[in-house]
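Input sequence (109 aa), recorded before submission:
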Amino acid sequence: MEADGRKQRRTLRVQAVFSLLGAVPHTAWLPSEIRTDRDGFIKTGRAVLEDRQGLARWPLKRQPFLLETSRPGVFAAGDVRAESMKGVASAVAEGAMAVECIRQYLKGA
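Predicted structure, token format:
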């Protein structure tokens, strides 16, 4: 938009277009026990324990699984996860990995 509020239209000749989705996480609805980074992306795995507050709140003797959030048994995958690759293919792969993490959690690992 221009300064006076009118829309501006331009035509660009490009060889390719890259669309980035997941740049803004919508995590405000999560309970405060699910820790996020300063941008609102969910911390998982070792990132859950990266400060004293995280260490103090983690209730289990084992380390969090790779995709496990600060609440044991709750997992995050894809663009909403801090430090994820932010792409469809990686989100799908992380979803599959989360299934394995859940299996380990349910086994009591």
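Checked by second reader. The chain has a mean pLDDT of 89.
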